[in-house]
Amino acid sequence: MTSDAGDVSALSFEQARDELVQVVAKLEQGSPTLEESLSLWTRGEALAARCEEWLLGAKRRLDQARPDGEAAS
User: Fold this and answer.
1) What is the CATH number of the domain that holds 50?
2) Which domain, by its residues, includes 31?
3) Long-range contacts of 26-30 (CB under 8 A, 24+ apart)
4) Is the pLDDT of residue 65 over 60?
5) Mean pLDDT, to the nearest integer, of 16-35?
6) Cα(12)–Cα(8) distance, integer angstroms
7) Residue 14 within a domain
């Protein structure tokens, strides 16, 4: 796992989700330094945004696949 924000655009949903779980676990355990905590937080934000991109894309695809007039619940 990378501890900086780095490029997450190439990660699959599953990769981003799994790394985000690891980041959260490390943050919950407490980091030895404030700098490391900030780095983990920044990485976590980037990973969460990547997961959201995947989920919004999946929702768009599902909405497009629905017959006209059928609303999403």
Assistant:
1) 1.10.287
2) 8-65
3) none
4) yes
5) 94
6) 9
7) yes
